[in-house]
């Protein structure tokens, strides 16, 4: 077993361990433990002892490291204080320490030095503050407080790092120089006062000259006060408008205090200097330029808001405040951005009010749109040959088709009611109801005309189908229900037949205006957007162009005449 400590401690530890081992061996003998078991338990006991020793060594290493860090920090602090105070004492503990000295001894020797130098630093700081206060006071009396503050602010950081006696002596020398200069100036002032008091020139011209000089100074002071108040008022206005920070405002705290102050109360030195007024005026110019750029952004933002409101309500926005015009007016300086912004605000309020007054009509327009969309969907649905299949969602489409037919049946009455509401609105407002720049009543009238034309096309289509069915029945009566393949193909080609599910050949009309898309998709206000100029030309073309089914009707009529005029056994002419 290892022995640690002094000689006496080692002997006591060794004797104790030996006694305990003998007692343990006697107990093992009494129990009857084998030599192998004894060796094993002895090795385990030795391993446990080593672990205890190792844990204690680790704790001692950590403690030593902490002491090293503490001593190093104290030595660094001591070196900093000595450098700041200009101390170079050879008897300091940093220079006199020896390697044989323990860490606790080092720490105990350095700590009193550090505390002593801290007190010395505090006393030195007070001496510096007293000297600098006197220097600042006398310098302000001689040179003015503004220039003195600028000079002292640049040396504050350096003074905090250099607190040596040499630096203190420099300040004290400078103070004595200023005190001497102040004394000399006071003597000169007293000499001048004595000379003035002893002067015998008390004529009227001298008094008048002094009075005029005093009057000019008073007028100049009053002018500067008014000018500064005007500048400060503009500053407050721009600060509130631009939401300036406190840091920006604090830079002008000295001059902002004159607002609401009488002339007799303005006594602070340098507040009415030309330098201070020019500095405030420059800040006003800077904020004014910044205001112009931000006001331009705000104008564009409000204009976009106006255009969005007009787009949603289908109102034409006022072109006088368009983005391009507004940008040109602001850049040219012809219009104040604030006035332009106020104008746009009024237009937004007007647009919102007009949108509210149009709401009853626009709600009916939306219902009309929904009905027209259902009608378009039903037309496409009816053209689907697989609409009755048992696929997924077929029953939903059937229900929708049934509901759509009911809704479509209400469209004529819906349009008439919308026209009446629009006319009533126009009578009340004494102006036309425009929808994207086009009068809504004109759109509705055109829609009714197009719808009537569509219904007429459907009626003619039904009449054509009846005539074709009549032709087919007559041909079947003359040549039988099963014509030859040659006749069947020729007849189908001529009349565009196609077979249905039961083998009969019902006629199919050629593509006419109904299926061509010109009248099946009726014009609504949405279809007016972007093509108002070409709409009436399109309507005139539809009203004058011949419909395709008329040509089909003529062909079928000629075929019917050829059938009636031919012999019973002769085939129809192709």
Automatic annotation (TrEMBL):
Listed name of the protein: 65-kDa microtubule-associated protein 6 isoform C
Keywords: Cytoplasm, Cytoskeleton, Microtubule, Nucleus, Phosphoprotein
A molecular function GO annotation: microtubule binding
Family: Belongs to the MAP65/ASE1 family.
Chain spans, region Disordered: 473-531
Species of provenance: Glycine soja
Lineage of origin: Eukaryota, Viridiplantae, Streptophyta, Embryophyta, Tracheophyta
Subcellular location: Cytoplasm, Cytoskeleton; Nucleus
Top-level taxonomic group: Eukaryota
């Amino acid at each position: 077993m290892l022995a640690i400590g002094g000689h006496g401690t080692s002997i006591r530890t060794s004797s104790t361990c030996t006694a305990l081992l003998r007692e343990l061996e006697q107990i093992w003998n009494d129990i009857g433990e084998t030599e192998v078991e004894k060796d094993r338990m002895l090795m385990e006991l030795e391993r446990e002892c080593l672990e205890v020793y190792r844990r204690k060594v680790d704790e001692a290493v950590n403690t030593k490291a902490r002491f090293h860090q503490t001593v190093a920090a104290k030595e660094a602090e001591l070196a900093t204080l000595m450098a700041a105070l200009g101390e170079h004492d050879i008897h300091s503990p940093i220079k006199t320490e020896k390697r044989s000295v323990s860490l606790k001894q080092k720490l105990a020797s350095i700590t009193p030095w550090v505390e002593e130098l801290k007190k010395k630093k505090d006393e030195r700081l007070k001496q510096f503050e007293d000297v600098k206060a006197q220097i600042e006071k006398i310098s302000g009396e001689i040179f003015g407080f503004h220039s003195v503050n600028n000079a002292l602010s640049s040396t504050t950081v350096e003074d905090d790092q250099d607190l040596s006696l040499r630096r203190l002596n420099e300040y004290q020398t400078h103070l004595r120089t200023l005190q001497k200069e102040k004394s000399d100036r006071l003597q000169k002032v007293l000499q001048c006062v004595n000379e003035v008091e002893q002067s015998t020139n008390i004529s009227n011209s001298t008094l008048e000259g002094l009075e005029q000089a005093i009057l000019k100074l008073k007028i100049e002071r009053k002018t500067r006060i008014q000018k500064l108040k005007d500048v400060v008022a503009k500053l407050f206005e721009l600060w509130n408008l631009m939401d300036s920070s406190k840091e920006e405002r604090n830079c002008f705290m000295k001059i902002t205090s004159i607002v609401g102050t009488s002339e007799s109360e303005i006594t602070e030195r340098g507040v009415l200097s030309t330098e201070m007024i020019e500095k405030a005026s420059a800040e006003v110019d800077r904020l004014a330029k910044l205001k112009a750029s931000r006001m331009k952004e705000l104008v564009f933002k409000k204009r976009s808001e106006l255009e969005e409101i007009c787009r949603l309500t289908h109102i034409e926005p006022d072109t006088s405040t368009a983005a391009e015009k507004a940008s040109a007016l602001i850049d040219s300086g012809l219009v104040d951005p604030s006035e332009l912004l106020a104008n746009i605000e009024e237009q937004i309020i007007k647009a919102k009010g007009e949108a509210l007054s149009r709401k009853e009509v626009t709600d009916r327009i939306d219902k009309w749109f929904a009905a027209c969309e259902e009608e378009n969907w039903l037309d496409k649905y009816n053209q689907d040959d697989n609409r009755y299949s048992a696929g997924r969602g077929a029953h939903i489409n059937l229900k929708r088709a049934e509901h759509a037919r009911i809704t479509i049946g209400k469209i004529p009455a819906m349009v008439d009611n919308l026209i009446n509401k629009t006319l009533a609105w126009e009578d009340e407002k004494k102006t036309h109801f425009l929808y994207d720049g086009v009068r809504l009543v004109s759109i509705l009238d055109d829609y009714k005309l197009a719808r009537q034309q569509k219904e007429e096309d459907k009626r003619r289509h039904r009449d054509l189908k009846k005539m074709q069915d009549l032709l087919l029945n007559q041909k079947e009566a003359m040549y039988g229900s099963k014509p030859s393949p040659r006749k069947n193909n020729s007849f189908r080609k001529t009349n565009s037949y196609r077979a249905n599910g039961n083998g009969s050949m019902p006629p199919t009309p050629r593509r006419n205006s109904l299926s061509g898309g010109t009248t099946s998709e009726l014009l609504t206000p949405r279809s007016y957007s972007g093509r108002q100029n070409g709409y009436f030309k399109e309507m005139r073309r539809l009203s004058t162009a011949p419909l395709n089914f008329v040509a089909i009707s003529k062909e079928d009529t000629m075929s019917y005449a050829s059938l009636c005029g031919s012999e019973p056994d002769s085939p129809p002419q192709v």
